[in-house]
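Chapter review. Work through the record for DUF4145 domain-containing protein before attempting the end-of-chapter questions.
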Amino acid sequence: MTKTTVKENKVLEGLDDNTLDGIARVACGGDDFPVYRSTADLRKLLQQARWENVGAHDGVTPRRAWFTAQLRSRSNTPGAVEAVVLRLVDPREYLNRNEPLAAAEISDLLNPLLIAEGFEITHHHGKPRIRAYEPASGQGEDPADTQLHVAMADIVRDPDLAAVLEQRLTEARICRRNGAYTSAVIMLGSLLEGILLDAVTTRLPNSTTPANRWMLDLLIKTAREHRWIQSDVHDFGGVLRQYRNMVHPQAQIRRGDAPDEDTMRICWPVISAALNDLATTAP
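Structure tokens for DUF4145 domain-containing protein:
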């Protein structure tokens, strides 16, 4: 019978002990981490990463210490730690869990650890990869964050809605950073609809238009008519609205092209500009 072995390479070999401990902490989960894994889950994780001869847990050692020891024992084995990291950020690892964003969230947790070692996690056609870290030239922050000058709670009056919209903004960031561009653009369209609906509800309290009639197209037009947003948000908001319709698969088929990073460079500033404009024109 042919044995399955880890492909030989030098990625993530000889990592610092603190880095290995950080990887173990994320893998074990619990507390504020996305996914909790029992010792049985951790052993299965190693097996799913194609590790052979994984010993059973002794029933005494704390699971994080046990998992860290496993990583250290093969830290110089070509491809071993890389395989574990790739499994941790592989969406297939979470198919049977109710954690649709777990792979993306864990990528965000692991990347600072790997960047310190000169590597980073990326995604290509939905599949995770590890490559040498390539910092963006002249760019130390997320461009979307540098364009945004206000907080959600400064614009949206309803604190519960503000919290929901802030979470959607965070999820859109996670999706973008991990190559899930269709999900990101759909999330941004939903976010634009939410902030504009709050604006018309707050600023036009006597409107006779029922809440269920405020479609995104009408919200954008109304916001422009009342000069709550500038013409750029009005014009490019229409583009974002069209891409948001890709929530319907047939709409994506009709368009023909899936969103990519270039799409995000067009759509993301719409959200930043809308939030900035609404803050500036707030009554």
